[in-house]
Amino acid sequence: MALKFCSLSSGSSGNSYLLGSDSTYILVDAGISAKKITDSLSCLNLAPEDLSGILLTHEHSDHIKGIDVLSKKYGLPVFTNEKTFLELKNLCKYWEQTRFNLFSNNEIFYIGDLEIKAFPVYHDAADTVGFSISCQGSKICTATDTGCATDEIIKELASADLIILEANHDEDMLKMGRYPWFLKQRILSDCGHLSNEAAGEIIAKILKQDPKQKRFLLAHLSKENNFPEMAYQTILNILETYNIFPCDKLKIDLLARDEMSGVYLL
Ligand SMILES: [Zn+2]
Ligand SMILES: [Zn+2]
User: What spacing in Å lies between the alpha carbon of 17 and ligand 1's midpoint?
Assistant: First the structure.
């Protein structure tokens, strides 16, 4: 077994994923309270002290809520790119005391035995990234908080075995819902969030590029503008138009908003 993945929380109200090898554990984002993260880790017989750091996708509050306490109390290093680091200055209470490790997008770096690459996505923050995390020939990619997926992003995701992909909203629910117009425009834009429909099209493109065995975890679902069953069924309907059906080689699961996922082993 090379890689493990567990979602501690996924959705517009807070995101944090645990990834690890046999010897190294990290978080991708810490958008829920440090207490909730600590409690979730303890369900896996882990503690914050077992973590080697926190990778940050971007500075929005649903991705950084637990950073202050985790970095102050446990001295956990935070890995981020420079533009996000600078934004955090106004958002983190303990910015000066936090151990930041800066990475450059598209350059490989290592935490323990995990090989990591941040790749740019399209979102209305300073410099949002997705992550590719590899170990012993297995690869996990995260792509949430992006309004679109370019050919480069599709290519990156197609090289992974496990793909955490945003299915944020149902377009009709969003358009008819109670959000103010400017917020609807923001979410629907190329720098907003992926709809269920867009996620379905992206999965079809990924499978066209690399049809080997893959598992997709649908992530960052909106509380206001989506239902899990709707996200799942919309995506299946889109895949059906390409003659693609879930099978042993293609598995699609949903990540719950307020619950930990199971542990996925690669
Ligand atoms: Zn965001
Ligand atoms: Zn977010």
Answer: 15
Domains of the chain: 4-265 (3.60.15.10)
Which residues place a Cβ less than 5 A from the ion ligand 2? 62, 145
Average pLDDT across the chain, whole number: 96
If one counts every other C-beta atom within 10 angstroms of the C-beta of residue 248, the result is 6
**What Å distances lie between residue 266 and 3, 161, 165, 219, 220, CA to CA?**
5, 8, 17, 19, 22
Residue-wise pLDDT for 18-57, tens only, equals 999 999 999 999 999 999 999 999 999 999 999 999 999 9
CA 124 to ligand 1 centroid distance, Å = 7
For 150-159, the pLDDT digits (tens) are 999 999 999 9
In angstroms, the CA 94 to CA 96 distance is: 6
Ligand that comes closest to the CA of residue 127? 1
